[in-house]
Every structure is written in structure tokens, then in C-alpha cells.
Specification:
Blueprint (H helix, E strand, L loop, with lengths): L2 E2 L2 H13 L5 H17 L9 E6 L3 H15 L3 E6 L8 H12 L3 E4 L11 E5 L11 H10 L5 E4 L21 E5 L4 H4 L3 H5 L1 E5 L14 E5 L1 H7 L14 E5 L6 H13 L4 E7 L3 H7 L4 E5 L12 H8 L4 E4 L7 H13 L4 E4 L18 E4 L2 H8 L3 H6 L1 H11 L3 E4 L5 E4 L2 E5 L11 H14 L4 H22 L9 H9 L6
Parallel strand pairs: 2-3, 2-5, 3-4, 5-6, 6-7, 7-8, 9-18, 10-11, 10-13, 11-12, 13-14, 14-15, 15-16
Antiparallel strand pairs: 1-9, 16-17, 17-18
């Protein structure tokens, strides 16, 4: 799995390269420029590139731009460098490459406005790198707007205006067709909205020491097909329905019986051998008609259509039967149901997946989480409530808050979003599959059923979370091509999940 760095980790790597390994910044900058030029020379663009404008800032990112211009000039490209600031304001290493460009008689324009009357085949964005957050200053924004008028844009390390940890973007942000990132991908390039601004991303080796596993903070990795292929095992030819995993589902209520169906079918389509579904007695007939491949366990509800405290004993009796338990989809917010869930969490000793309304008891009592062996699957709104912070604060410092959660609780946390993020203990994972078509009701129910099924089959909590999240997104990618992203609904995923499982069979 490919390693991914936060902004702090990228700074630490750069600092240690100099302090502990005596690798000069000038050397790294020279290698960065060489890598950018080498990439451009391969002509991976929609049109033939001859004329190139490098737009450079005053820091190390600008230095990468000057270095790239120097190497591009050696390859006989027609290069112009637009330095947003006068050379007196450049950082030390950047100034070295500015002077080398000047000595090579490369055209350099200092401190000017964007050249509206000029056109280029390719723009290289080297204005701001990993240190940016917030909003761009006006003098930078006008350059960004000019850059974005072009059809081919290559960014050095990260697009200007993008936060390299959170993936948040400024009102004005370079929208790249390609990004060459130095050493390792930055987390903000891998999650939305940053991912959509980064274009095709390629990481290049510029000579950093091999100490990425020693960096402070969570060890972040990308979840891709190779990762999943290495984990999933073919079914044993002698298996049976009991060996394939027994899943217990507590889901649904009046008006939300679909959640029980989708989560149960998500589990069955992911290979669970047996699925039992609790149903409020007044809704039992609906459950039995809809979930024909599952077993329905009726719970007395006096016609109310939701689960109640008096259902505790029958639920706990069935918990002993299960290999993994799913709680939450469509349960509603009735106080009786919340009190029931609290009692279950205080007594359960089986691997547990908690989704949607199953999270309600934790909002006022996070201590419940300290003893649970569970996977939590909140979307951003639910996660902000769980952490007792505003949605804005969560989005701005998502990585920091997830790292804080992972250090405080034993649970696996799946933050559902475009490019879902998973954390547990000192490990973090970013999913690479999926599309906006998943932004529709019920897709999270399917995912929670999938995670529970893989746990029941014997995969650990982290493996089950990574496998399910990737396949869930992969299936959405396939279905969006057949149907459309806009028209995708949750039930569309179910049959395709089963079909996608074929690649993991012997």
C-alpha cells in the first residue's frame, strides 16, 4: 500500500533529511525540478507541449518551479518564468535556482501581473506548496484565475490554494490536469474536494531518506485493488453456511424498513452464511416479505413500530448465536430505542458494527465506546456530533480529530465521505474508489452490512472496514458507468457486489 503524508509529516521528512542525513535542500529542489521536467518530456497531455510558463512563488515550491524551468530549458522547451515576487524576497534555495535560470538566459518576469495577452501550451503552478491553509491573498488569486484559463496545468507538489492535509480549497484554487507530488502523495490530494482539484497525480522520488515509517502521527496508506486482493481469501471448498459467518442485524423502524433490507442484503451479498434480522412485531410481515433470504426475529412493540427496552432479553439471547452484530440503520431516535441500545452496549461482548441511529447513545456518553470492540460508520454530520464539534471545525481539521479519536478509543472509525477515511490506533487508510453517486439514501446501510459480513467471516475489524469500503466504492464506480452517478440508488449496488466477489474466488 502506498504511503501518504500529512502536512506535518511532510515537513518532518524534509527537516530530518537535512538535519539527520545532511541532504541539502538544494539537492532535493534540483531533483524535484528534474522530475517535473522528465514528466513533461513524456508529453502526457492532450496536446503537444512546446511553450511553457512556470509561475513561481517565493518559497520552496517556487524553487521547484525555477529548478523545473532550468531542466526544461535543457530539453529545448520554450520556457518563460513568471516570478510573482521580486527575487529579493525569494527563500535561499529558491534564489539559487533563480540565479541559475538567469545565468542560463531563461526569460524571467518578476513581480508582474498575469500576462493576459500571452498563451502557452502548458502552465506549471509552483506558487504555493504544503504550507498553505485558509484563503489566498488577492495578488495570488489573480494568478490562479489566469492559470485556470489554460487547458493543461501541472502543479508542483500540490495545487496552489489546496490544504495538503484537509483537502480543503480556497475560493480560488488551481484546478490541475496533473500534479507531481514530491516523495509521497499528500493526504489532501487523496480526499475531496482536494482530489478533484489535483487531476492525475504521480509521486516521484527526489532523494528523501527512507524514514517514512519513523515519522510522527498516524501511518496513512491508500486502499486500492492490490491491497484488497492481498487480504481476501477464496472460499473454502468445504465451507457451510455456519462457517461463512452468522450476522445479527438490529435495524429499521416504522417508515424506515428499507434500512433493514439494505443492510441485511449487503451482508448476504458479501458472503455471510446466515443473517438474522430483528423486527418490531407490528412490522414483522414487511420484514419477512422483503428479506426472504434472512431469518426474522419478532420483537414485541405494542404496535408502535420501534424497538423498546423490553426487547433487551430476546436481543441478547440472539447475540450469543452471532459471529458479528450490526446495530443502527433506520432505528429512529425514540428515547425507548436509545435506552435499549445503551443497555446492549453495556453488555455486549461480540464484534459490533454501529451505523446511523445506532450512534445516538454515544453522543452524550462517549465512555460507552471505551469497552466496545466495534466499527463506527458515521457520515460527517454524525461524526461532528460524536466529537462534539461543529461541522466546520471537523472539515477544517478532519485528520487531526480522527487521529485524536484513534488515540483515545479502541474502535475502528470509518468517516464516510468522498474518499472515505478509516482510522484505528496508529494506522489510517484512505479509500481510492467511489464517486458522487453514493450520495443517496441507503448506500451507508449497504456498507454497514458488508463490514459486518466480513467480520463474521473471520476478517479483523480493520481488514473488514478496508475491504468493504473499497468494494462498496468500486461497485458504485461500475454501476455509475452502466446507469449514471446521478441515477444510482442503493439497491443497485447489491447484485453488483455479488458479481464483484467473483474475482476473489479460486
Amino acid at each position: 500500500m502506498m504511503r501518504v503524508l500529512t502536512t506535518d509529516q511532510a515537513y518532518e521528512l524534509d527537516k530530518r533529511a537535512s538535519a539527520d542525513f545532511n541532504i541539502p535542500g538544494e539537492s532535493l529542489m534540483g531533483n524535484a525540478g528534474l522530475a517535473v521536467a522528465s514528466f513533461i518530456s513524456k508529453q502526457p497531455f492532450d496536446q503537444k507541449v512546446k511553450s511553457i510558463a512556470v509561475v513561481a512563488g517565493k518559497g520552496n515550491n517556487g524553487g521547484d518551479g525555477f529548478s523545473a524551468a532550468l531542466e526544461l530549458n535543457k530539453l529545448n522547451f520554450d520556457v518563460s518564468v513568471f516570478s510573482i515576487y521580486k527575487h529579493e524576497k525569494l527563500s535561499n534555495d529558491s534564489l539559487i535556482f533563480f540565479k541559475k535560470c538567469r545565468d542560463a538566459q531563461i526569460r524571467i518576469v518578476e513581480g508582474s501581473k498575469p500576462p493576459i495577452s500571452e498563451s502557452f501550451d502548458l502552465i506549471v503552478d509552483a506558487i504555493l506548496g504544503i504550507g498553505f491553509s485558509g484563503q489566498l491573498r488577492n495578488e495570488v488569486s489573480e494568478w490562479v484565475e489566469w492559470i485556470n484559463l489554460n487547458s493543461s496545468i501541472l502543479c508542483c507538489d500540490v495545487p496552489t490554494g489546496l490544504n495538503s492535509s484537509s483537502g480543503l480549497v480556497s475560493t480560488s484554487t488551481v484546478k490541475a490536469t496533473h500534479t507531481i507530488t514530491m516523495g509521497f502523495p499528500k493526504l489532501g490530494l487523496c480526499i475531496e474536494p482536494g482530489k478533484s482539484f489535483s487531476g492525475k497525480t504521480e509521486s516521484v522520488d527526489i532523494g528523501f531518506p527512507k524514514i517514512e515509517d519513523e515519522l510522527n502521527g498516524i501511518d496513512w496508506r491508500l486502499i486500492d485493488s492490490n491491497f484488497v486482493d492481498q487480504i481476501i481469501k477464496p472460499m473454502d471448498s468445504t465451507t457451510n453456511k455456519y462457517a461463512q459467518g452468522k450476522v445479527l442485524v438490529l435495524a429499521g423502524s416504522k417508515g424506515m424498513t428499507g434500512a433493514a433490507f439494505l443492510s441485511s442484503m449487503g451482508a448476504l451479498r458479501s458472503g455471510a452464511g446466515l443473517v438474522k434480522v430483528f423486527a418490531p412485531e407490528s412490522l414483522s410481515e414487511i420484514y419477512e416479505k422483503k428479506i426472504t433470504e434472512g431469518i426474522t426475529v419478532s420483537c414485541e412493540d405494542e404496535g408502535e413500530g420501534y424497538f423498546q427496552v423490553k426487547n433487551f432479553e430476546i436481543i441478547m439471547d440472539q447475540v450469543e448465536w452471532a459471529d458479528a452484530v450490526l446495530i443502527g440503520p433506520g432505528l429512529g431516535t425514540n428515547k425507548e430505542t436509545i435506552d435499549l441500545l445503551t443497555m446492549i452496549y453495556e453488555n455486549i461482548n461480540k464484534p459490533l458494527v454501529v451505523d446511523a441511529d445506532g450512534l445516538n447513545p454515544f453522543y452524550k456518553n462517549r465512555d460507552l465506546l471505551k469497552k466496545l470492540q466495534c466499527v463506527l460508520t458515521p457520515h460527517h454530520g454524525e461524526l461532528s456530533r460524536l466529537l462534539s464539534i461543529s461541522l466546520g471545525e471537523l472539515k477544517e481539521k478532519l485528520v487531526n480529530h480522527m487521529e485524536g479519536f484513534a488515540s483515545s478509543y479502541p474502535s475502528v472509525l470509518i468517516a464516510k465521505q468522498p474518499s472515505s477515511i478509516i482510522v484505528h490506533n496508529i494506522s489510517g487508510y484512505i479509500n481510492t474508489s467511489g464517486n458522487p453517486g453514493l450520495a443517496t439514501a441507503g448506500t451507508g446501510d449497504v456498507l454497514s452490512g458488508m463490514v459486518t459480513a466480513f467480520i463474521a467471516q473471520g476478517y479483523n475489524l480493520v481488514e473488514s472496514s478496508c475491504i468493504s469500503t473499497y468494494i462498496h466504492g468500486y461497485v458504485a464506480d461500475k454501476m455509475s458507468k452502466k446507469i449514471s452517478e446521478r441515477g444510482l440508488i442503493a439497491s443497485d449496488l447489491l447484485l453488483e457486489i455479488a458479481s464483484s466477489m467473483s474475482r476473489y474466488e479460486s
